[in-house]
Design goal:
The protein is mainly beta. It is 12% helix and 32% strand. It has helices at 2-21, 36-48, 210-214, 411-423; strands at 73-76, 79-84, 91-92, 106-108, 113-116, 130-132, 137-140, 154-156, 161-165, 178-180, 185-188, 200-202, 223-225, 236-241, 246-249, 257-263, 266-267, 275-278, 287-295, 303-304, 308-313, 316-319, 330-337, 345-351, 361-364, 370-376, 384-393, 396-406. An eight-stranded mixed β-sheet has the order 1-2-4-6-8-10-12-13, with no helix packed on it. Strands 14, 16, 17, 19, 20 and 21 form a six-stranded mixed β-sheet that branches. A five-stranded parallel β-sheet has the order 3-5-7-9-11, with no helix packed on it. It is elongated and about 130 Å long. The relative contact order is 0.06. Mean pLDDT is 92; it is low at 1-7 and 9-27.
Length: 436
């Protein structure tokens, strides 16, 4: 009886010790010491990613002999084989030392706040079967060494800010079954037809074009998602002279593409090529254009090209106010802008009635677009005049706005009128408008 009691006490103590060592989801391999190099690599991860502020960091920081009890770490036969720290408030960047954990088969770090680029050393983890880096804030391209992870069956990097082209070495991962690249900034994807085990490929919400996707249609045996993708091209602005020609062109990779052009969001009938040509620009051509690119093989996706903004400087003729007005002369200027064809004649026409024409009194002043002036002579003193600038091209004669002015009177006439005003009590006239 006494010996049974002692046995039960020992058993309880062993169980208690086991629970204490294995608290907080410990890894397997309790009591198995790992190498100091593995312990140091884990501590580098801890220090680089804000370990003290992790949601759970139970037992982290102990000796190499305790690593199997560290939260999220699995030790098998004295080797660190799994690190699972999902949704655990990791911040900062992965350290280069992560590549020293060469016996890892699982690295699962999803739903944290990790940032920066992946270290090239991740390519050393050639025993990895599962790599989950999704839902973080990683940036930059995937390292080319990822093509060395030939034992991967699952790779999840979605919902980050990875950019550039997915490395061609991805073609080496022939055991891969699940690949999620979605919700990043990738702008290139290699032909993954070598991945004959692939069941699921997710690529939506990147910057991929149809040439990236066409070669991968049919590669995954179960699921292939590719829509939507980011818009293509950059905004362009054109300011055209009246009568000018301009091609609006899009360039999008793909063999089976279709094109639809829009102006101010309204479909342009018959505009179905990579280029939309504006010929003989007029004010009617001004507006915002864009092109939507589809694909007859990848019908779920439409790529929208950035806007082309077109403005047209209208042909105009303007008349400036008269200056240097005397009793018989005046100077009147004008400006011709954006004539659609060569201006062969320009100048000022004038008369004592509104709407003066080139067929009446006029004075030429050069050719072409530009600003000019004309000195009008032989005018009648004290007379109202009307004047307009004109421009002649192959389209005919165009007139500017009309201005008016009144010539002065001779000085001697003014003196005589002033004397008359004074002698006849001008200030008391019933109407003396503009006198003196």
């Amino acid at each position: 009886m006494e010996s049974s009691k002692i046995l039960r006490i020992k058993t309880v103590r062993l169980l208690t010790l086991f629970l204490l060592l294995g608290a907080a989801l410990p890894g397997t391999g309790i009591g198995q010491a790992v190498s100091q190099a593995d312990r140091d690599a884990l501590m580098a991860l801890y220090n680089a990613t804000g370990g003290p502020a992790w949601t759970n960091h139970t037992n982290w920081g102990g000796t190499a002999a305790t690593v199997g009890t560290w939260y999220g770490v699995t030790v098998t036969s004295g080797k660190v084989t799994k690190v699972k720290l999902t949704a655990n408030n990791l911040t900062g960047s992965l350290p280069t030392e992560i590549g020293s954990l060469v016996d890892l088969t699982t690295l699962h770090l999803k739903q944290n706040s990790l940032s920066g680029s992946l270290p090239a050393s991740i390519g050393n983890l050639t025993k990895l079967i599962f790599l989950g880096l999704n839902e973080n804030a990683f940036t930059g391209p995937l390292p080319t060494g990822i093509g060395s992870l030939v034992n991967l069956t699952e790779l999840y990097v979605q919902t980050n800010q990875f950019d550039g082209a997915v490395p061609a070495g991805m073609q080496n991962l022939i055991k891969l079954q699940y690949l999620n690249l979605s919700h990043n900034l990738f702008d290139g994807l290699p032909n993954l037809s070598t991945l004959t085990a692939l069941k699921e490929l997710r690529t939506e919400n990147n910057r991929l074009q149809f040439d990236d996707l066409e070669v991968n249609q049919g590669v995954p045996s179960v699921t292939f998602t590719y829509s939507p993708q980011a818009g293509v091209g950059t905004p362009q602005t054109y300011t055209l002279s009246t009568g000018a020609n301009q091609n609006l062109t899009v360039s999008v990779g793909g063999t089976y593409n279709t094109y639809r052009w829009y102006k101010n969001s309204v479909l342009i009938p018959g505009a179905t090529l990579t280029t939309y040509a504006i010929t003989g620009a007029t004010s009617a051509h001004a507006g915002t254009y864009h092109c939507e690119i589809g694909n007859t093989h990848l019908t779920a996706l439409t790529l929208t090209h950035a806007n082309f903004t077109v403005s047209v400087d209208a042909y105009s003729v303007t008349t400036q106010a008269a200056t240097a007005i005397t009793s018989t002369t005046a100077t009147v200027g004008g400006t011709v802008t954006n004539s659609p064809t060569s201006v062969t004649q320009r100048g000022i026409c004038w008369g004592t009635s509104t709407g003066p024409l080139i067929t009446g009194s006029h004075l030429d002043s050069g050719t072409g677009d530009g600003t000019f002036s004309a000195n009008l002579t032989g005018l009648t003193p004290g007379t109202p005049y009307f004047a307009r600038a004109y421009s002649v091209n192959t389209g005919g004669t165009t007139y500017g706005n009309e201005i008016s002015f009144t010539t002065t009177v001779f000085v001697q006439d003014l003196e005589a009128l002033t004397a008359f005003y004074n002698a006849t009590d001008g200030p008391n006239w019933i109407n003396r408008t503009n006198w003196i």
